[in-house]
Each structure stands twice: as C-alpha cells, then as structure tokens.
Amino acid sequence: MASRLDKMLLAAANLLIPIAILVFATGFFPYKPFMPGLATYEDLSFVEGRFGAGTDIPEPIFDKVVFMVVDALRSDFVFGEGSGFAFVQSLIRSGSALPFTAHATSPTITMPRVKAITTGSIPSFLDVILNFAESDTTSTLAGQDTWLAQLRAKGKEPEKRDDRVGGDGNGNGNGNGNGNGNGNGNGEQRKEGGGGKLVMYGDDTWLKLFPGFFEREDGTSSFFVADFTEVDDNVTRHVPEELLNSDWNGMILHYLGLDHIGHKAGPNSPNMHPKQLEMDSMAQMIYSAIEEEQHLESTLFVLLGDHGMNEGGNHGGSAPGETSPALVFMSPKLQQITNGGFPSPATLTGEFEYYRKVEQSDIAPTLAGLLGFPVPRNNLGVFIPEFLSFWGTVEDKARLLLRNARQILKIVRATFPGQSFPDKVDESVGCDGSLDSGEELACKWQGVVGALKGETETEAVLEKLMDFCRTAQDIMSSTASNYNVFRLVFGSSLAFASLAFTVVVLRSKFLPLTSTGIFYALTLILYTIQIFASSYIEEEHHFWYWTTSAWLFYLFIFDSRKGWFDIPFLHPAVMVMGLHRVARRWNQTGQKYAGADDIAHSELLRNSVVLWSLVGACYLDYAMRLGRAVARSIGPQDPKAEGGERRRLLGLAAVLPLGVTAFLFKLGFTARDAPELVEGVADGLVRWVEHYVSLVGAARMVFVGIGVSVVWVVVAEGRRRRRSSRGAEGAVADRHGLATALFDFLTLFLITQTRTQNIPLYLIFRMQLFFLRLLPLNRTQISLTTLLLTHTSFFSLGNSNAISSIDLSNSYNGVSGYNVLAVGLLVFVSNWAGPIFWSSAGVLLLLDGEKEGGREGEGEGMGQGQRRTEGISEEKKEEGRRTVRRWVEMEREHLAATPPSSSSAESHAFPPFHLDQPNQPSPSSSTPSSFTSANSFFNYITLQTLFTTSSLLAVMMACTVLRTHLFIWTVFSPKFLYAMAWGLAWHFGVVLGLGGGIWLSGR
Ligand SMILES: [Zn+2]
C-alpha cells in the first residue's frame, strides 16, 4: 500500500496543477480592464494656438456605412491575378476605391477579429477561449465602446439640441424615416434625422457580440462547412430590399461561404472562383445602389476579410496567408482623394501583401473620422492617413489625428502610471540614451506638444502625430509590456513544487534503475527540452511517433530475449509497431508538411465504399461487444452456461437500435458535412436519412442510449456483486467485464465524436490494444505505453499545437441551442478522442495485470487469453491463443523454478513498479503488501502526474523565458493553451476521473 504520506503528497501535487495554471495564465494573458462607457470627443483646450479651438469637429464625409465582411477573404482573392473580383478591381483602377492589406493579428479566427475591427483594440489571446464560449456575457461587446455603439449613439445626439426631433427620444422608426425622407444632401439635417440604426445579416457571431443592437437581423451559423450556398443566399436575399430602405446608418453583412470553401478544399478549390464572382456581383449591386439611390449618396462601402487562410484553407494561426485579409473602401467620393486610381491586379510587395499594409485596428478610428463620431474608447488603431486629403485645412487634419492621439494617450497613461506625459513642453522629459517603452512614448508625445506649440511646418505636426500614434500602437499591442512577470514566475514555481512532490512520491522507486525507468526519464527529459524550440512544438508529433516506435522496438527486443515467441514477425510488439506505422500516416499534421499526402485524404478513402466498409466494420465490432456486455448483464457470465446463446442474441438485439442509430447519425451528418464522402454509398439510404433523421435528435438518442446502457450494466453488475457476496449460486462478480463494458460504451461515444475519415483508426487502435494485451507488461511499462499512445493518437487523429487544427465539426452534436458546457465538452472529446481511448485502455491493461496477478493456475489464465481474442479474425485468434499458450507454458516453467513463496503468484505477473522483468521477483516483492492492487493505479497516476507537471513546468518556463520571442503569440501561446487543456481537462477529467471510474468498476 502506498503510504499515507505518499498519498497526501500526490494529492497536493495534483491540487497544485490547476492553481499553477490559473496563476500563470492570469500573468500571461493579463485581464485588460476595458474602459467602460462611450467615448466623447477629446477636449483639445490644452492646445494653445491654431490647432486648439476646442469643440471644432471636422465635418464628416459620410453618413452611412455598408460593412461587407467576407469571411477569410485573403488579400490575393481580391487584388491578385485571376481574382474573381473584376468589378472591385475596376473601381480600384478608376480611383473610386482605396485598397489595403489589413494585418490581422493571431488568433486569426472570427470572434477576436470582429472585436479588433469594431473596438480598435487588440483582443487578448483569452478571446480564443471565449470564442468557444461565445455565450459568455462578459465577452459580448454590448457594454463596450465600438463604432457600432458610436454610430447608434450618434443619431440620438441632436435630440438635445433640436426640438424638432426632441420627442423622438427612443429613436423610433417613424421619426427617423421622416428625417431621412427630406434630409438628404444637407449635412446638418442628415445628422438630426438619420441615425442610430443598424441592420445585420450573416454570421451570427455579430448577433452574439452585439445583442439587441440591430433593428433587423438574420443570423446564420457556420455549423456545416459543407454549406457553400445557403449561408450566403440567406444574406443576399435581404440586400436588395435593405438598399431601398433609408432608415439605417449601418448595414453589416457577413458572408461565410468563401471560408467554408477554404475549409473544405483549400484556396485553390474549384468552387473558389465562382464564389469570388458571386461576392463581386454583390459588391457591384451595393456600389450601383450607392451611385443611383439618393439616400445612399453619402455611403461608405467597406469590403473586407476578417482573416485570411493558409494553403490548407484553415486559419487561426499567424501564417502570412492567415494574417493578410483584403480591405477595400469604396465610394464615388473617393475620387476626390485618389488622384486617378491604382493599378489592379496589383503586384505583390510582400507575402500576400498588396498596396499599403495597415492594421485591422485602424478601421475603427478611420470610420470614426469619416462618419463623424468619437474614436472608440479602447482603440489602439490609427486613422488611415490616405483619407486625410478629404479635409482641406491642416487644422482639420491635425485635429482628427490629435483626438486619435489623445484617446490613445489615455490608455498609455493608464499602462505606464509611473511615467509622466506632460501636455506642456517639459525639458525634463529626455529623448536621449536607451529608453524603455514608457520613456519612448513620453518623448514622442513631447514631440507632438512641441510641434503644436511651435510655428513649425504644418505638415511636420501631422508627422509627429502619426509618429506618436504608430509608436503607441506598436508598443501597446506588442506583448512584452503586458506580462505580469511575478505571476509567471510564481505560477512556474507552483508547477515546480507540484513536480517536486511527485518526485518525492516516486523516490523509493528510483532504485534500482531499470531500463524502463531510464526510457521513461529520457522521454520526459527530451520532451521538456524540445518545448523550448518553436519548430519542435510545431512538429511535436514526430517526437511521439519516433519515441513510440523506439519503445515498441525495445519491448520486442526485451521480450524476445526471453525467447518465448519464436516467430519474430508475428510477435505482438512487432504487430503493434506495424499498426503504429499505419496510424502515423493517417493524418498529416504539423506546420511543415501541412496538406501533404496522407491516408485520410487519399484516393483510397475518398472511395466511399472503402471508407464506409471500414466505418461499418467499426460500428459492427462495437455493436457485438456491447451486445456481449448486455448479455453478460442478464445472466451468468459463462457463455457455455445454459441459455448462453439465447442471451447473446438478446443482448445483440438490445444494443442493435443504439448501434444502428449511431451509424445512421454518422451517415446523415457526413451527408451534410462532407457530401463527397457519401457519394455512391447507397444513395437511397442517404437520401432517406437526410430526409427523415433529425441530426440533433439522432445524436441525442445515441447519447441517451449510451447513458441508459451504462446505467443498466452498472446496476446489473451491482446486483450480481451483492448476490455473489451473499454466496448465491451462479452469481460470480464479473468486475473486469464491467470495466470492459464501460470502455466499449465510452468508445462508441468517442466514435460518434470523430470525423468519419478517422473512424477506421479505431479498428487500428483496437488491434493494437489486442496485441498489447498479449505482452507481459509490468506497471511501469503499461504507464509508459499508455503515455506514448495517448499522445501519438492525439496527433494521428490530425491534431497539432496550432489553433487552426482544432476540429469543431462535432461540437454541436445533439445540441440545438448554445450551451457552453455541452459544446465545450463535445469540442474536448472530439479533439481528444484518441487520448481518451488510450488512457482508458491503459487502465484496462492495468486491470488485466491485476487479474492475472490475483489468479493462480494456468487454466484460468488460458481462458482469459481466449476471451480477450473475441471479435478478432479467426487467424489472429488462433495466433493469440498460441501466443498465450506459449506464454503460459513459460510461466509454468518459471513458477516451477521460483522458490515457493506466498507472493509468487502475484509477483510473476504483476511485479512491483520499478521492475521491468516480469519473471523475476524483486527484492521488495517479499512483502506482498508493497504491491497490492491499489498500488498499481496509484503508481500509474503518479507517473501520469509526473508527466503532466513536468511538461506544464517546461511550457511555463519556455513562455516565461521566451516571452519577448518573435513566436510567442504564434507558437508558444497556443502551446500553453494546449498544455492547459492537457493539464486540466485531460489530466483531471480523463486520467483521474474517467480512469479512476473504470479502475474502480473493474476491481
Ligand atoms: Zn473559418
């Protein structure tokens, strides 16, 4: 038994894990307190001389905006050769459009991008998490200052000044309609009558971020990426009508089809060009309306992508393709400032860089200036200087930039409380020597103050203002200034303490050193070292693939040394290794060879018949297993007992509806999500499923079915155990059977949450498990094998350490509304399905060892070997029997050679923790209590905790040490998010929670 001290230490080590993560995360992703409330115009009265003059607001140029977001609209889709945006390109040539490449910072996913575009701030990385927890009210922008809020507030302003619309305090449609009807062409009247109204069509992210903001809205969810047309038609159908309405100031459209095409088949998909043509025709429709409709004559039309896409068609990270969306401003009025247009298609100036590059956050202050409202309060963007030519006087231009600068200065002052930023020329602010960020900004601000005061060249004032704003934008959006280093160090120290406790628990197991122990230690050391190299993080799968291969090879060598297996090819370790090679090839992952050939996307699996045969085989396999589990629960476990056959049939009949529903759900889901994968597969059936099976309903039936079955087998086993303990006849507790049944039901759940092309992997995993069960592994070996296979399977299912590889396709199975907990759980399960399978399988292997250890006599051992082989082909069954028979023979010989000891039966099959030679009793085995059954799970979780804490510590240290590294946001931060998921959801939910449950059920 593990000592009480050890137990407490391990508990403490585990308790420290979430605390360490929390402390570190709050230092690494500091919570940026948003300044609440709407900004008002900055007071410029501190400026003496010509640029001051208080409330003089430069006249706005536009009164309406059409904001057309095309999801994942990469710069080259609009600006490059062969683009489908012929009309937009013609506007660029004619000078009616101003084109830019708008830099989108990582994470390049929609919600943080919309936040950046509307607030002008740089969303923290935590928004990635909030992106998946969208209903979290703290993440809405309802209470924050955005250009949408400003545009809405703008219409209400005149009420204070003008009696005519004074009664229209709530901005109802009637009053606004009147104002518009007669107000066109007159700036003042437009302001009074227009306004305050927004309409929105498209991606419902906007509706979640801005609840209650829109007069009229129609959201579409981006649930089925196979849907290229419906998502966009649902937007387009509203546009012609809205273009005739004069009551709105802002119309937001968000098209998803192009993004879906990217996700499905990449940027070079044959569907890409037609979609560009469609989007271009929408742009043409809107632009023509602006030219023709009088109420739209002062409308600014913005076409942009929220992010781009990489060569695989995905996004989330920071590859140039992902961070370079297009941004085009269009209006006939722009001809006043463009001096005859730009060449189009354009030539590249950098990777995916066309024309000038601006920041995505610059959009908010630019709209503020052009439409005439204060710059949103938390903005870090800078007014795009090309538009300054709209204003004739330098005073107007300077005031626009100055208000932008003052607004940013407020944030700067809050960020550097120790630094003074005087509004008067102050000799004490130095610009010499090496300056830290705060000092540099103070120096630049002095440059502005000096230029405003002095009689310098007027253009020099604008230059100084731009210089200050841009520097502030760079510094404030760069990361170094944002960390709380104390928390980073404190969090890392807690992780170190957790590791230290775990090592203390393991202290007695270090000696004598065994080759398995050395292998484990080496794995741990190499893994933690490689975390400090960004390229190794990107290609982490190689580490696990090769380590697993090496380990399996070691098992083969180690085991064949004993010579009990005479056909090396068919040695179980070799079989596992061969299957491992196939699994590795299943999904290409990592950065370097993303999109390269793999099995999941090969011609073979594109052949629907092959794919669905494999998938069907997988479902059938599980239906049989589950049928047996149910059969066991309704009678004696011995299949040869009376009525055994009947019970098996009954069991199969009981689980068949569940299996069929699960299969039909997968078929129906795939028909919607990836229709190309069901082409040619029983068309009639597919159409029937599409028509009659509700996907939400079917998924719920599967989940409920699994839940009910689990309760059934648990209750049945509980009754059996009670009867058995009373000594009732024929009632033999089948603990191991219960654990296996739970594992099988769990796997059906995992398969439901797995992409169709990956389902055949479960056949491979199954076979690997089968062969592993033939190997006489000790506890340490089981722990290490489990650790390696959990990680290998994570990557072989197509995951990586990049945000863009998170698979969201199964996150809404059975969920109709939005439910953070349900969706969060489903996202986790569908991305960690492989690790969940293997860590549960690892517990089964431990239970195997225990069972063997607890039994005496080879007869039963044989029977068990046979039972394990059920469900696999006859050939393999026979081989398995031979294997086990041989092994049992070896055991028999060995037993005969071992000095008789009360513990020999236990020690031979289940040696103490530090031994890797199952057939040699260790010195400590003379005390049976040192390796009683509870110990093996204790030792297993100790080793798993050791890995979790040390990898967490390594990631934390890497993020702390490399916090100013170029790749901190692109590689290390996502890695930390993954480490959080491994450390919290996986370690606690799966290893301790689920694993503990299966362990208890099997004892
Ligand atoms: Zn997307």
What this model shows, in words?
The structure is a single chain. This protein is mostly helical and 1003 residues long. Helix content is 57%, strand content 5%. The chain is built from 39 helices and ten strands. It has an eight-stranded mixed beta sheet with strand order 4-3-5-1-6-7-2-10, sandwiched between helices. Strand 8 (348-350) and strand 9 form a beta hairpin. The radius of gyration is 33 Å and the shape is globular. It starts with a helix and ends with a helix. The model is unreliable at 132-137, 157-194, 854-877 and 890-932 (pLDDT under 50). The chain binds zinc ion. Zinc ion binds at residues 71-72, 259, 263, 315.
Element layout with pairings:
Blueprint: H1 4-28, E1 64-70, H2 75-79, H3 86-94, E2 97-103, H4 110-119, H5 126-132, H6 147-154, H7 173-183, H8 187-193, E3 198-203, H9 205-209, E4 216-220, H10 230-236, H11 239-244, E5 250-255, H12 257-265, H13 272-292, E6 299-304, H14 320-323, E7 326-330, H15 335-338, E8 348-350, E9 353-354, E10 356-359, H16 363-371, H17 394-415, H18 437-453, H19 458-477, H20 485-506, H21 515-530, H22 534-538, H23 540-560, H24 572-586, H25 603-606, H26 608-633, H27 644-673, H28 683-692, H29 695-725, H30 735-752, H31 760-772, H32 779-796, H33 820-831, H34 833-854, H35 858-868, H36 874-897, H37 904-909, H38 933-961, H39 968-1001
Helix pairs in contact: 1-20, 1-38, 7-8, 17-19, 18-19, 20-38, 21-23, 21-38, 23-24, 23-32, 24-31, 24-32, 26-27, 26-30, 27-29, 29-30, 30-34, 30-39, 31-34, 32-34, 32-38, 34-39, 35-36, 38-39
